[in-house]
Amino acid sequence: MKITGSQIVIECLVEQGVDTVFGYPGGAILNIYDELYKNENRIRHILTAHEQGASHAADGYARATGKVGVCMATSGPGATNLVTGIATAYMDSVPLVAITCNVGKSLLGKDSFQEIDITGVTMPITKHNFIVMDVKDLAQTIREAFAIARSGRPGPVLIDIPKDVTAAVTEFEPLKNPSDVDMLISRHKNIKRAVTLSEPDEGQLKMAAELINGAKRPVIYAGGGVKISGAEKELLAFAEKADIPVSESLMARDCFPSLHPLCTWMVGMHGTKASNMAITESDLVIAIGARFSDRVYGDSSKFAQHAKVLHIDIDPAEINKNISTDGCVVGDVKQVLAALLPMINAVKHDEWISQVQEWKKEYPSCYDKNTKDSINPKFICECINRIAGEDTFITTEVGQHQMWTAQFYPFSKPRTFITSGGLGTMGYGTGAAIGIQLAKPERRVVHIAGDGSFRMNCNELATISHYNLPIVIVVENNNALGNVRMWQRLFYGKRFSQTTLDFGPDWVKLADAYGIKGYRATNAKEFEKFFAEAFKSGKAAIIDARVDKDEMVLPMVPGGKPIYNMIMELSKEMMD
Q: Which of 61, 74, 67 shows the shortest CA–CA distance to 16?
């Protein structure tokens, strides 16, 4: 049958199992939006307040479901407004397809109104991108884009379509054999990151098992790849059989039960003493689905100096990129752990585990209090968890509140902690919360934000209100860009340049403007009361939770220092 390019877009999205897209219309993409209108019974379109919100919502949808998230935007500024969201997805290996439309082919390269070379702009932050110049290529391009986005190490793919291509007519044949697409993507030589998978190499598995069985003080460094591959059960079985403590990157905080005796929580700049010292004193670091971020290793020359390093990852480009290894297994984490499990010995490392438990007892004292006019961040996490339960999704923005959540929230279920790790995108969490709540309407989302980050995309309150999404937003409000202020206190002589945010908005009044219930909590008793009321209402709410401006994120490893060089508490001189 002969159909238009815009109809092909809809048919291919349905073909790929897409039920929801997030976007914002404009002139160049009008043909596609006209087809969305005609096909609203097949694909649900969510109109966000800003294209960046659409990209973050598609990202959150993908992280919560494991499916490919889809966002759309028009040419020029519409397309460039997606860039931060695409980069966020790229850094955290999130499967995303962004569809943009450009000016007509005859207008390309002429500085036409709202023209931008979006494929050139996004080349460094996508696994691959396409501009479709012939409608005959459109269906195959969309199919390949989805295959690339979800295969191997996932990531974002962008498809740019000139407006006249969306109007052109060609013959369309429904996809008959999905595996044909997976074979065809191999013809693209410049795809970044792994797209094909093979069985784990037997030699690599054997070497890995020998390293693990020979270790006396092993430690697991779990990364976001555990969650991406769905290997949480395999990780638990692996750690328990070999009696190995598990430290986690920020992206893996929900990959291993927080209250499990072997869990040492987060590692790195704001990691626990138990995680950082376990890495430092170990004789084998087993990195699983982790990319050795600089926020994890600090001074690479002093990272795990007494240990051998075994790296398990799907992407061979990550092996020996930041930290030299003594062994590796390239492959999907779930498959690799399943293959290794029968090869490793069931042992007990009693002396080593005892030492790790001693480190776990050491926690900074500054988190032990609430005051009459501020709320302790640790209390906020514990209160939310107690009332909301373990099935609730927790999203964050980026900053102190994000680190406090990672440090103190006792996650027990996979895919319940969703945050921007690699790019550290302020303004990410509100859009992500929208995508998650729409993907999982039977569950609840609590969004923990800082007042600095929440300013950036609080326009998405319009989206939350319009679609009646029961998201509870907790703004940890310290009237400051807290993380930057903390660095200014410690390393810039307390010169608090442009980090004081004492000029509004009033979050309760803003909530009311959007038809959302707002609360202001100045102490722990008020917060507990208001959060319970908001959560149980089953409606959207904002809680302005007052946090002390000088509350710190501790432990802290100064940038570039060894991860054992932790600031555990501040001297009086630092605080005055």
A: 67
- Please state, in angstroms and rounded to a whole number, the distance separating the CA atoms of residues 233 and 452: 37
Closest CA to 477 of 453, 494, 456, 495: 453
Residue that the structure tokens 């107690």 belong to = 386
381: helix, coil or strand? helix
How many residues appear in the chain? Answer: 576
Percent of the chain with pLDDT over 70: 95
Supply the pTM of this predicted model: 0.95
Q: Quote the pLDDT of residue 373.
A: 82
Mention every residue, 6+ apart, whose C-beta is less than 8 A from residue 111: none
| Axis-axis angle for helices 333-340, 232-242 (nearest 10) | 30
Beta-strand pair 156-162/246-248: unpaired
Strands (E), 262-307: 263-266, 284-288
Specify whether the CB–CB gap between 163 and 326 falls below 8 A: no
Q: How confident is the model at residue 192 (pLDDT cuts 50, 70, 90)?
A: confident
CA distance 51 to 515: 22
Tokens 């969201």, residue located = 85
As a whole number of angstroms, the distance between CA 303 and CA 563 comes to 7
Please count the helices (runs of H) and the strands (runs of E) in the chain.
Answer: 25, 20
Q: Residue-wise over 87-116: b if at least 16 C-beta within 10 A, else e? A: bbbbbbbbbbbbbbbbbbeebeeeebebbb
